[in-house]
Amino acid sequence: MKGSTHRRCYCRDAHTGKPLGKQCPKLSSRKHGSYSIRQELPPREDGTRRSFSRAGYESLKAAQADLDHIRALLGLADTDDPEGMALIAAMLEEVGDEKSPLPDVEETRRRLKSGQDLIGRLTVGEWLDRWLDGKRIRKSGLSRYETDIRFHLKPRIGHHRLDRLRVSHLSDMFTAISDANAEILEQNAQRRAAVEELATVPWKGVDNRARRKVMKTAIDAMPPFRRVTGPATRLRIKATLRSALNDAIGQQILTFNPAAHVELDPVRKPKALVWTDARVARWEQTGEKPSPVMVWTPEQTGAFLDFVAEDRLYAMWHLIAFRGLRRGEACAQPWSETNLDDHSLTVSAQLVQDGWEVETSEPKTDSGFRVVALDDDTVNVLKRHREQQDADREQWGSAWVETGMVFTQEDGSWLHPGKVTDLFERLVAASGLPPIRLHDLRHGAATLMLAAGIDVKIVSDTLGHSDTRITRDIYQSVLPHVGKNAAEATAKLVPLQRKTEAEEAARKAAKKAAAKAKAEARAKKKGKRKKPKK
């Protein structure tokens, strides 16, 4: 196809104002004017001609280099590949119209072979939308991805071109999130202080009412209370972006994933702590929990189960407390997978929340599918629960909703996991016991199993963990008396010649008593030798 370079200037006739063009007398100097290129492109589908034109080159060498670049791009498609030729022509026409840089030849070759868009104009936001639309996972997972994308990723980096996203862009994003956190905390503190001050102003009196009105207006103008984006959420945002960019690499849109190289502060998962007497006393004084994850002692667990013995869902609390089922797993447990004769149940489903909506789903991982052994007491509890459910079914008659679930609402319909949590928290508060979450009841089951000396692999399988390291990491703390017994057993393995503190104290006390007795004997003997006075 034809292509050419030419030189022109923008000088005008002093009298007419018209461009001189080739008649300009200064064109004889190579430094005068600028160079332009023009390259014929394959015609459009309707047969009309099109070309690539660009001006403003300072030298013939620069103009010729771009012309050669264009011809190299046109040469990427074989002559018997009209579709490829049309794609390259459309790309060059668009690049020429927008005066953007010429695409790299090798990058264009790669995109052409992989069937991708030849111009890397896809933004991060556009790719995230496309990626999310293509995800085929459960609804709750999609909602988490959508939240990360809508609230964090698209507003902060969505405008960047996908192929030009860099680690520095992501570092700036997380720095901005940290800065926003500081601003949110400051605004929350200001609003809280204003609300507390308002509470001190009396209602009676004209001046007080006027002051309250002014303060309320000021509070309404303040930003509302907001939650900060914590370390765990920042890691989740990074994970969402990393997953999306990995898929872009899989589709050969990208060759590098910057999200895999951005550094964030590590998040330490809270360790499970047991409600010891000292911690309970401190909680009763201050109302503060020593850790977000707290575990009851066996006595406290027993006290709770005794307190809720008449609750309609007692069997659920009992099952979670002793066998460690997750909330969603317990809510979704069907009778068809509960074999009381064989003392076992099979976890094969769970109820999950999407917002406030509830849907049934398979366990998140393969390890979630598991068989859980049941002790005699738990089997008896479940048998009594089934008898009560049969009585409820007969009482409700045709209004009974047959779901086949072990634990249901009064009419047989699904339990709502969120309402189950709310009920548990109310029962704990009413019992007077130190607070734990419903999930902590599962933690308590794990701690009890470990304290009973059950192998960690069996504990991990019962809980549905994919790796025993997860079990060890979460449940490092055990019940106090178990740790004390282990420490004493360990100490007795080492023979020592020295006396213990208790033995040494007893020895000193005996020595002191012997010396005292000896002194008293001497004094008594000396007193007998003295003659009485006349």
UniProtKB/TrEMBL annotation:
Signal peptide: none annotated. GO terms for biological process: DNA integration; DNA recombination. The keyword 4Fe-4S does not apply. The keyword DNA-binding applies. Residues 523-534 have a biased composition (Basic residues). InterPro entries: DNA_brk_join_enz, Integrase-like_cat_sf, Integrase_catalytic, Integrase_recombinase_N, Tyrosine_recombinase_XerCD. PROSITE patterns: TYR_RECOMBINASE (PS51898). Pfam families: Phage_integrase. Residues 20-53, 504-534 are annotated as: Disordered. GO terms for molecular function: DNA binding. Residues 291-488 form the Tyr recombinase domain. SUPFAM superfamilies: DNA breaking-rejoining enzymes (SSF56349). Keywords: DNA recombination, DNA-binding. PANTHER family: INTA PROTEIN, PHAGE INTEGRASE-RELATED. This is Site-specific integrase. It comes from Streptomyces marianii. The lineage of its organism: Bacteria, Bacillati, Actinomycetota, Actinomycetes, Kitasatosporales.
